[in-house]
Amino acid sequence: MTAISSETQTVHPTFVPKEFDAEKAGAFVGKVVTDCAATVSVALAVIGDQLGLYRAMAGAEPVTSVELAERTNTSERYVREWLINQAAAGYIAYDPATGRYSLPDEQAVALLNEDSPFHVGGALMIALAMTKAEPRIRENFRTGAGMGWGEHDHYMFEGCERLFRPGYLANLTQSWIPALDGVQEKLERGAKVADIGCGHGASTIIMAKAYPNSRFYGFDVHPASIERARALAAEAGVADLVTVAVATGTDYPGSDYDLVAYFDCLHDMGDPAKSIAHTREALAPDGTVMLVEPAAGAHVEDNFNPVGQFYSGASVLVCTPNALATGSEAIGTVATDEAERTVVAKGGLSRFRRATETPLNRVFEARI
Predict the structure, then answer these.
(1) Which among 209, 205, 176, 152 has a CA at the least distance from the CA of 288?
(2) pTM of this prediction?
(3) What CA–CA distance (Å, rounded) separates 56 from 52?
(4) Which listed site, 23, 156, 287, 334, has its alpha carbon 20 to 30 Å from 294?
């Protein structure tokens, strides 16, 4: 028998309630089993995504494990139970009469179409990357320390681009920017735009392609993401419109920006008000700040839904740790509108409103 270090063992005292409802306990155990099964299925879904298993099934005749393994140059022995798991999870379909598996078109769009607002590949990668941080975050619970963005598993960075890009494609130039007072007209004429926390540059590139008379400057603290953003801008044919560089939200260069955009990043900052104060100084006199933040309710219980569950979990595993690694504010992923307003006001912007929203995001407009 392998000895287990005493440092890894946790002794829990037995809990004996005064009253016990076995039916309620059984229902809760069923929920936990469902959650554990979903967690395992997420890991297998990422495997299917990365190895091209879904792509090999899309638009094709139903397959057996042998056929799918041959088609993807993978091991049939692994593919066999992968198919069972994915069918049990509802990601693929199974026909017991033929013993074959298929990928319905609706699932294929969600799993494979990177431009579709239904795309889920990025969410799967992020969920898996977040769980890999558990040992570090568990220790942070004891110490109060942080964990920087760049310290996460590499799936986090690609996953974020794949998660957010479809939403930006569907909403950024169609509804978010038009919801800001006078901003679309400026961009069409020719404006100067800063994209804070640009990551791989998805938002920057989308804006550059839509408004070729304007110039765009993307900033991010993660050097590898900036390299990727530069390459993607060149691939998209907008390298002449886009300049990206490594910088934080409190020291990025430039002035007289007509629009400064924060896409899903203000809540990650250790001193968000300081970033807003820096932005205030970098704005043109009639400039606008656009804050795109995760959806969240005005009350704790408003977040008791799948979106709130995902975002509050991301706050614990990713966003709050990064804020604590870079400062002490940590407003969190599910910060209320009033918490956002307070940060903006502290940074020196007096006008603030929620301009529009989607099921996953709130879009705020702030001005001097």
Answers:
(1) 176
(2) 0.91
(3) 6
(4) 287
